[in-house]
Write a structure and sequence with these properties.
75 residues, 3 helices
Amino acid sequence: MNNFRATLLLLAAILPLAACGVEPWVKPYERANLADPIMSFSRDPVSSAYRNHVFQAREAARGAEGGQGGGCGCN
């Protein structure tokens, strides 16, 4: 019984340290695919991105919703 407790204690100590060596799931060259508007939660991500662009240009609030980019919104 004492041997079982020692093994259990050893596993409890090693398990958190083993999690530190995990590589990131998403590689840097794969992040462009996740940044695509199609990966958005909205039903129509392309039109919602356009609506946000128009709203930001009208309200002079470029980037207020976490949008990217800059400029006057002329394009």
